[in-house]
Amino acid sequence: MATPTTSPAPPPGATGVVVFADGRVAWGQGFGAEGEAVGELCFNTAMTGYQEVMTDPSYARQVVCFTFPHIGNVGANDEDVEAADPHALGCIVREAVTSPSNFRSKVDFPEWMARHGRIGIAGLDTRALTRLVRREGPPTVVIAHQAHGRFDLPALQRMAREWPGLEGMDLAKEVSREQLEVWSGGKWCLELGYDEEGSPSADSRPHVVAIDYGSKRNIFRNLVEAGARVTILPATASFEEVMAHEPDGFFLSNGPGDPAATGEYAIPVIRQILDTQLPLFGICLGHQLLALAVGGQTSKMFQGHRGANHPVKRLADGAVEITSMNHGFAVSRELPAGVRETHVSLFDGSNCGIELLDRPAFSVQYHPEASPGPQDSFYLFERFVGMMR
Questions:
Q1: Has 367 been annotated as catalytic?
Q2: 207 is known as an active-site residue
Q3: Which of 192, 196, 327, 360 sits most deeply, having the most CB atoms within 10 A of its CB?
Q4: pTM of structure
Q5: Which residue among the candidates 145, 284, 287, 327 is catalytic per the annotation?
Q6: CATH number of the domain at 172-388, please?
Q7: Mean pLDDT computed over every residue of the chain
Q8: Taking the domains of the chain in order of start, what are their residue ranges?
Q9: How far, in Å, CA of 189 to CA of 215, rounded?
Q10: Over the stretch 98-156, which tens digit does the pLDDT of each residue have?
């Protein structure tokens, strides 16, 4: 298995390479689309759900190193996606992708990657790369795939050196939908797939207006499952546009980039929303934006949290939830007056949840819709819908 090295000479048959800004390279076998892309290298510890990971908008401008060695072995389908197109730039896997073995597979993973213009590199020592990120923090890399195996390494290294990094980068506007959407889909089931017919009694359900900073589809399915109806607006929607839909409550979605970079459009609107005294629920980036809106602080994490096995302690009763996470920024535990911490990570003690004491608003850093528990965190959706009722 290839590990990062300073040697520029590719081994025989190498068709893929990961190039670091400091000159290190790691050679492997490319799959998916040909070309190159520059971004931040991170690792994900989930054992399943590689399609969901690749299509999660929170991975915009990132290259995902999967720690689980067998990625792609169940192929790809049209249902297990969180957005219409992948947002991760590419992925790094240990073992070569084999032919799919799953009755739901419609296409093999390399072809799915190629269709969507995403680059994969197999045959790398993903454990070594994970240790590198843990030791040094997430580096900037260029991931490149060429079938002929010829690469301009100085040009790729220059791309990596010149990329500015995610801190200060506003990506929410880039990945947000541009038009209003009324959500009607339900959860997936074996016989029917995803139920896109909605509920005949939807008009009587509490109405959530969700602001899309890079949302995952399964969040809206869980809101519907909990008893709400959902209207989704773009990240840049004004307070007047939000209120025109007569909401019973507000949802702030997940998303990529630096939360502080949204200060010109997202945070002012959230402050106005809080003044309505209607229920508000935020997840991931939405959690960070809520904290900023009430005077909290966020900062770039050394390595971030990404995976489906993160233990989080609920401070109200000491219960531990197994959660899914995907974030590179965190809310400071030094919270302003009127804000209470509700959850903390048992990995590093970082903040994972807050609630406001004078308004019906709360948020969590993790993804309750991802169901790694599998039902440890669904109560959050039920709590939110119950507040609206």
A1: yes
A2: no
A3: 327
A4: 0.94
A5: 284
A6: 3.40.50.880
A7: 94
A8: 16-162, 172-388
A9: 22
A10: 999 999 999 999 999 999 999 999 999 999 999 999 999 999 999 999 999 999 999 99
